[in-house]
């Protein structure tokens, strides 16, 4: 299934491109511009740290006997939970602004 690598890379590029564009547009609307630089600095530094720590933690868990497939199930569950929480948070934000919800 070598096509999955191509699909993964396309989706990864789409994800990175959309996230940088959306964060640049949404963050000033949500948090204002006063502390925007500080928020971005903290967020980017945490992303870099977690990206560096991820392979080490995964290797450590493999050494403890946790199969990589099990780790992927937990990672996927975490992502699904994050999507649910962000959906709830965006709904609460729209209600707070008294704007109609667009689905």
UniProtKB/TrEMBL annotation:
SUPFAM superfamilies assigned: MFS general substrate transporter
Alphabetical UniProt keywords: Membrane, Transmembrane, Transmembrane helix
Residues passing through the membrane, by range: 6-27, 39-62, 68-89
Protein name: Major facilitator superfamily (MFS) profile domain-containing protein
Taxonomic source organism: marine sediment metagenome
């Amino acid at each position: 299934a070598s096509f999955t690598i191509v699909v993964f890379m396309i989706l990864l590029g789409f994800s990175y491109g959309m996230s940088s564009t959306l964060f640049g547009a949404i963050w000033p609307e949500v948090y204002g511009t006063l502390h925007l630089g500080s928020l971005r600095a903290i967020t980017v530094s945490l992303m870099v740290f977690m990206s560096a720590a991820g392979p080490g933690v995964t290797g450590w868990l493999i050494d403890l006997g946790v199969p990589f497939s099990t780790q992927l199930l937990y990672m996927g569950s975490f992502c699904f939970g994050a999507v649910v929480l962000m959906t709830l948070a965006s709904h609460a934000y729209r209600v707070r602004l008294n704007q109609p919800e667009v689905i």
